[in-house]
């Protein structure tokens, strides 16, 4: 058996930590000794407003009442000021930043042609520009950590899901940021990874129209936020050395989502007809293609 992984003295910022998966991240990390900055604005699931209550304060109080260390920050990560508020809270309360888990998210399912520009922008603000702003503010402090770690939260919707062009597109942008920051962090030892979680949360309920009733019932009963948190926690532990990777996590299932180059063809005299004739070879994923998994150190610069 692996010895219990300890997070004592680790300082972790978790966004969207007032409810659902983010709350599970914060509670697990704090129970293992981490000091947690609980970030949550308390927004509606579609990001159009802010609900009553203070979920960040509730989670921080839950942690401290159990003997853990936490501070709540109700800031808007889509602004530079909001991102800096999280960083300032970590430094002023705990003196350092060792890891950031970008979990905050919004969602509203709608057909592609019915989504206005403003909603695309709102999804990009929360899922891409928000994490970018927070990481930009936290990066100098991460570089001072002996084991800096970042976990971004993407979604399989970036690979395609009905009524999710705006949501999946913004998550795809965050995937690109993850891969590029993994490259930038190589020399300094900043490990940057992502998870694509599945859980029966408020956001899943908000996207229920895109899923069958059977799937939604399965998510409500079998896919818990607590199933996701152990993977995020491991990815921010000093012993975890992977970077630039994505992991699907749901209901106790964990697997790696990898980009693979097929063997394809090579023909300097390429014509349209050659492409048509060799299409099956271009598309084929063979055992020989598997070692060509695109890793950060192999990506072109």
Automatic annotation (TrEMBL):
It comes from the Bacteria. Gene3D superfamilies: NAD(P)-binding Rossmann-like Domain. It comes from Gordonia alkanivorans CGMCC 6845. It holds the Pfam family adh_short. The keyword Oxidoreductase applies. This is Short-chain dehydrogenase. Keywords: Oxidoreductase. Belongs to the short-chain dehydrogenases/reductases (SDR) family. One of its GO terms (molecular function) is oxidoreductase activity. InterPro entries: NAD(P)-bd_dom_sf, Peroxisomal_Beta-Oxidation, Sc_DH/Rdtase_CS, SDR_fam.
């Amino acid at each position: 058996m692996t010895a219990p992984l300890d997070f004592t003295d680790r300082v972790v910022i978790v966004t969207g930590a007032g409810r659902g998966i983010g709350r599970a991240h914060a509670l697990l990390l704090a129970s293992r000794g981490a000091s947690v900055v609980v970030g949550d604005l308390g927004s509606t699931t579609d990001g159009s407003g802010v609900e009553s209550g203070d979920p960040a304060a509730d989670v921080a109080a839950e942690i401290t009442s159990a003997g853990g260390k936490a501070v709540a920050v109700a800031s808007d990560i889509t602004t530079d000021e909001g991102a800096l508020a999280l960083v300032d809270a970590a430094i002023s309360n705990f003196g350092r930043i060792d890891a950031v888990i970008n979990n905050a998210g919004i969602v509203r399912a709608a057909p592609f042609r019915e989504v206005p520009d403003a909603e695309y922008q709102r999804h990009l603000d929360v899922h891409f520009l928000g994490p970018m702003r927070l990481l930009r503010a936290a990066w100098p402090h991460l570089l001072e950590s002996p084991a800096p770690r970042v976990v971004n939260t993407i979604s399989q919707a970036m690979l395609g899901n009905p009524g999710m062009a705006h949501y999946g597109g913004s998550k795809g942008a965050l995937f690109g940021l993850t891969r590029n920051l993994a490259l930038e962090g190589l020399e300094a030892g900043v490990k940057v990874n992502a998870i694509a979680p599945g859980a029966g949360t408020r956001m899943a309920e908000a996207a229920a129209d895109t899923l069958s009733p059977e799937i939604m019932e399965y998510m409500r009963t079998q896919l818990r936020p607590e199933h996701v948190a152990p993977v995020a926690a491991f990815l921010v532990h000093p012993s975890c050395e992977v970077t630039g990777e994505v992991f699907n996590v749901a209901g106790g299932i964990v697997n790696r989502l990898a980009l693979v180059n097929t063997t394809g063809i090579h023909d300097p005299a390429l014509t349209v007809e050659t492409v048509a004739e060799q299409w099956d070879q271009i598309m084929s994923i063979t055992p020989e293609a598997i070692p060509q998994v695109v890793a950060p150190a192999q990506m072109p610069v």
